[in-house]
Design brief:
The chain has one helix spanning 2-46. With 47 residues, the chain is an all-alpha fold.
């Protein structure tokens, strides 16, 4: 019985971690897009 509980808790933490990393990836991607947009705006002002 203990093995089932330990396996269930481990699976829960692993799946939660996957969602966390997915969210982190989306945040980094959004930040990258903001930097790219800002650089494009500066470049347009220089021209």
């Amino acid at each position: 019985m203990k093995k089932v509980i330990i396996a269930s808790l481990t699976a829960m933490f692993v799946l939660t971690g996957c969602n966390t990393f997915k969210g982190l990836g989306e945040d980094v991607s959004s930040a990258g897009n903001a930097v790219t947009d800002g650089a494009g705006n500066v470049q347009n002002k220089i021209k």
